[in-house]
Task: structure prediction
Amino acid sequence: MIKVFKIGGNVVDNLAALDSFLSDFVTVEGAKILIHGGGKIATQISKSLGIPTTMIEGRRVTDADTLGVVTMVYAGGVNKDITSRLQRKGLNTIGLCGVDGCLIASHRRKPAPVDYGLVGDPYKVNTELIRTLTDAGYNLVIAPITFDPECGLLNTNADTVAAAVATGLAAEGEVELIYCFEKSGVLRDVNDESSLIEHITREDFARLRAEGVVADGMLPKLENSFKAIDSGVARVRICSAENIASGRGTVLE
Result:
């Protein structure tokens, strides 16, 4: 089995939490891939440059200036920092984004019903390249910048990238997709860690969304999780970055 992990910006922004997660990540046996976001850093730099940030249902609207910022932050600073930290912990690691070896090909998202700008929807993952690198003993750290042969680089939601990579690999073998962030999983009350929802079905998701329990950045996580399951991913878990080895979290089925 290959495990695909995704960490969000709140973990990346907290250096103590990030270092703790990476220490646990190193101990995970077998082939593994880490996909990261880095939203707060991009937002801070955009603000310092006078570039406005617009978010719709947890997704960043990306114009040309914003694309420059997120490429610099995600594929540059954050990706190489994580890769460096893992190398220092003794894990042989390669940092990539979707344009490298055409790792993740995307189409620019259509402007209707919402125009997100230079945002990509992945349609092909270069699993041959992934397998070549993992079989050679490398662990991959992937930034969520993808590639459209028609228009070039595209900002892509990191949850979507994680699901696309897991789905692509699922056609060739067993894959587990694990979304890691600062909460213990999907919570009925975001301010109460004891309100963890341990299992969510598609029917539960529709109801929780209608009730407003699932909103904002959690929406793309669950949407992509169920798409991944439908496409053959064996298991999806949403958990705290502190609990990647414990099994605690929300399991989607």
